[in-house]
């Protein structure tokens, strides 16, 4: 859980009494953002370089194709075609990283001086927004029309592998638009799905048809699927090939390129764990041996139970209490593959 803490915005550091919660802050401000946390007693930011890379990509995507998600009150009086194009990749990435790091360094040392409870870390969110007022003055340098805000809150890290600490997930709604970018407006848009959250469910999953599962509202979703005769082409006739594969939806299907998602892929490739970018199909859930979700705050969390509506149309036609669900329960302990991947990622993080 994260709580209100410190905010750096427009050159000012705001203290807890004047700092909104992270969800309120993101709902109130457009832009591309990324969230990570400190680790090793706040010694460093977890996979920060990867977050900066993803953030620079998200800003560029919004700037070039969906500026309304970057600039507040962008309307017909502002022609998006007049927004200066971003420079070439090396300059773009290095400048965004520099702007973000400069802002982080204004507020993180202040937050670090505050007393924290034992076991607490800090959740750090960097938001890059478009400044509509400056936009009219910008000629060639688009960076002059960008502002960086940084929110820092306390965070208690998730403990992996503890019984009863698994995620309970439910498939409740369609995938995101512009899923390849992480943008703050999604915090507001996903609220409409809350009315479909079954009791005890801790994460909502997205699907466009109720069959192929894309991702979670704030996580990426994976299954460890047992192979059967229909998957013979993946066995390749090699008797030593492992009888399962890790599956997650590809970016092209409309999912966020999560930082931990990419690390899972890298671990699978380096350890020889069969992996396939394909949306897990609910019709094959009998072959699912394990499932887990990933995010930069929780790293990895095994799935304890998944629910899918018996009728996809019922989500639109019925109230929550009238919807019937199909369920799959997983083992109480993390599966072998989930535990192996988690161990490797934690080692990469130095945890």
TrEMBL record:
One of its GO terms (molecular function) is catalytic activity. It holds the Pfam family Aminotran_4. InterPro entries: Aminotrans_IV, Aminotransferase-like, BCAT-like_C, BCAT-like_N. This is Class IV aminotransferase. It comes from Salix udensis.
């Amino acid at each position: 859980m994260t709580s209100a803490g410190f905010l750096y915005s427009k050159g000012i550091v705001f203290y807890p009494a004047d700092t909104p919660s992270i969800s309120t802050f993101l709902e109130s401000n457009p832009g591309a953002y990324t969230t990570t946390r400190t680790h090793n007693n706040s010694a460093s930011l977890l996979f920060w370089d990867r977050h900066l890379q993803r953030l620079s990509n998200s800003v560029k995507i919004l700037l070039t194709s969906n500026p309304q998600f970057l600039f507040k009150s962008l309307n017909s009086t502002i022609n998006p075609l007049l927004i200066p194009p971003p420079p070439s990749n090396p300059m773009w990435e290095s400048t965004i990283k520099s702007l973000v790091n400069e802002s982080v360094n204004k507020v993180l040392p202040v937050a670090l001086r505050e007393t924290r409870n034992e076991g607490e870390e800090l959740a750090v969110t960097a938001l890059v927004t478009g400044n509509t007022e400056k936009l009219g003055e910008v000629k060639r340098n688009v960076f002059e029309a960008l502002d960086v805000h940084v929110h820092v809150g306390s965070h208690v890290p998730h403990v992996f592998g503890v019984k009863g600490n698994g995620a309970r997930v439910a498939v409740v709604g369609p995938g995101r638009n512009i899923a390849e970018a992480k943008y703050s407006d999604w915090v507001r848009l996903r609220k409409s799905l809350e009315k479909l959250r079954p009791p005890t469910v801790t994460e909502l999953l997205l699907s466009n048809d109720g069959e192929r599962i894309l991702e979670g509202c704030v996580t990426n979703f994976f299954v460890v699927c047992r192979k059967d005769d229909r998957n013979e082409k993946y066995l390749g006739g090699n008797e030593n090939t492992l009888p399962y594969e890790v599956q997650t939806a590809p970016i092209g299907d409309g999912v966020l390129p999560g930082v931990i998602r990419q690390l899972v892929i890298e671990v699978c490739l380096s350890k020889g764990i069969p992996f396939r970018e394909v949306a897990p199909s609910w019709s094959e859930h009998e072959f699912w041996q394990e499932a887990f979700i990933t995010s930069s705050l929780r790293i990895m969390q095994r799935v304890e139970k998944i629910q899918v509506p018996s009728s996809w149309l019922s989500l639109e036609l019925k109230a929550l209490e009238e919807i019937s669900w199909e369920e799959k329960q997983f083992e109480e302990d993390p599966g072998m593959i989930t535990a192996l991947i988690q161990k490797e990622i934690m080692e990469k993080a130095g945890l």
